[in-house]
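In the previous chapter we treated chains in isolation. Here, by contrast, the input contains two separate entities that must be folded as one system, with a combined length of 356 residues.
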Amino acid sequence: MTNRENYHRAFSALHTSDGFKVDLEETKMRQTFRFRNAVTAACVILALAAGGTTAYAANIGGIQRTIQVWLHGDQTDAVLTVDNGGSYTITDESGENIGGGGGVALEADGTERPLTADEIYDHLTNEVTTDTIDGHLYLLYKDQKLDLSDKFSDKDAFYVTLQDDDKELYVTVMKDGSLASSPDRYMVPGVDFTTN
Amino acid sequence: MRLSAEYLVQQYQENLYLASFSICRNQQDAEDVVQDTFLKYLHTSKDFESEEHIKAWLIRVAVNKSKNILTTFWYRKKESLEDYMNSISFEEPGDQALAEAVLSLPKSYRIVIHLYYYEDYSVAEISQILAISESAVKNRLLRGRRLLQTKLKEDWTNDE
């Protein structure tokens, strides 16, 4: 066997995951946002504090806003700093970095651009997340905290609909805290998204 | 010429995944890259000369997107490479060692090695896809092969 034959056979064993499917219809229809969170501490970025302020931070060329974050099960004030490259950091009141991340938007012509501060802000303030606090798994949305610990007695997935004014969000939460959501319908594990 | 995205997904999804995986070394990141690469194809108005031209363009986009992932500090909960590799059913006993040896190479060597040994591209073609000189491709191939020989010993023959 040549190196090439061995190489080909070895790498042919690596595939996309079973549930993975390129979504051509979805991508044709709308602008897509990809987001990743960098969580460096046990925090979940969640809701905009009432009366949150905006200030331009000339020293870093970005924008700072006050937001509220979930930290160890409690909401607390934090500072969201967004730079011009679409990246953000979250710092607590002592200035310690407690999270961050970044994202890009894909324009209709396929080009990428950094997310704006408003887009990042909207994303973070409307994000649904989970966190384990004192052994309890919670679903966190804005200032709401729902204990899911007893929801998984005989199943791996829990389905919950979040209502926010006239908006509805269908959320599927897995036992391990991973989740998938859609404004249209419940996402089905193993069908719409993969699970480990 | 243009080919339907549906056809290209069917033909090249796994090729793009492997090219991306050889850089990212993470399944989810590589799948994101595959999705984004086909999105870019849907939105490009570029006219291609042939199917091979489209394939090379797709791989180039996937490689660039994979590099972008590595240069950001964005983070996601990742399955470790070791866990992922242990979950794969390799055909032959030495296959996992080979794949792990390749994935342990510096990333600039990995993609060159992958395009050469998996996609059967020539040095000139790799040079075009990666937008680097032919001498840089040869150099990375040479160093990558030597590292593989060191790691895999008799399981990697000297084919320089």
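The two ends of chain A are 35 Å apart (CA to CA). Chain A is about 10% helix and 45% strand. Compare these points with the single-chain example from earlier in the chapter.
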